[in-house]
Design a protein that fits this description.
Elements: H1 10-14, E1 18-19, E2 25-26, H2 32-35, H3 55-61, H4 68-137, H5 144-149
Antiparallel strand pairs: 1-2
Amino acid sequence: MVKLTEVEDEHFAQEKPQPSKHNVLLASDDEDDDFTDTESEISVESDYDVEGETLYERLSALKDIVPPSARKQATNTVDYVTSFAKSSIAFSGKALWILSTSAFLLGVPWALAYAEEEQYIQMEREQGMIKGANEMLAPGAPSTEEQKAQPTL
């Protein structure tokens, strides 16, 4: 079995507080005197490295300065912005996928057909230039196309 004994503080053993008019014990009007420890040594030098402290550590040390309602509002704002950014990026990615696949499925065949048509037009121009050159060399001579069209007897 454990026996408890009360050990009185040296400071209070020498000076017993007197009850006041409302039966409240007040040692003195100056309450700071009771809670100061004059015998302890306050170290001027600290082993804490301020230069090695990161920005995150500094901000997390300041969290007690900001009231809880402001912290909650800031957290909600950050959550809203991040969720909006994530959904915007996801939507943009899906839209980009749709546009790029549509361009490949519709644009590539159209570009190939357009290039082929341009090639036919260029070939017709070349044939027209050859025909014009032949007429200049031998005026009135039938062209090769006219010779093919005339029946041979």
